[in-house]
Specification:
With 106 residues, the protein is mainly alpha-helical. Helices cover 20% and strands 4% of the residues. The longest helix is centred in the middle third of the chain and has 12 residues, at 45-56. The mean pLDDT is 76.
Length: 106
């Protein structure tokens, strides 16, 4: 590995020089991010299946905990269909605002 100026190890010396809008000081030593979309904006379960495949291909980054049963937080972020959320919340006797006016999290 290359030792960087801060005393750590990384790829700092392998970066191009600052030029135009590019500044190597904005780089972070991390793996990558994958994006899978439908170019026409149509929701599809195949997007979720494809993202699962993408995530499984990220195992090279050590995406497991010390006991190999737990992940490192790598995962999939997706929108939830409004109709599904309305039905799920109605079962809890709750009403949701219109689509785009609420968020959910885990």
């Amino acid at each position: 590995m290359i030792q960087d100026p801060s005393g750590g190890y990384g790829w700092a010396d392998a970066l191009p020089a600052k030029q135009g809008l590019y500044d190597p000081s904005n780089e972070r030593d991390a793996c990558g991010v994958g994006f899978i979309i439908n170019i026409k904006g149509h929701p599809s379960h195949s997007l979720l299946r494809d993202s699962e495949n993408l995530l499984c291909n990220m195992s090279h980054r050590g995406a497991t905990g010390a006991d190999e049963r737990d992940g490192d937080g790598a995962g999939v972020m997706t929108s939830m269909p409004h109709a599904f959320m309305v039905k799920a919340f109605q079962a809890l006797d709750c009403n949701l605002p219109p689509a785009g006016q609420y968020a959910v999290g885990n």
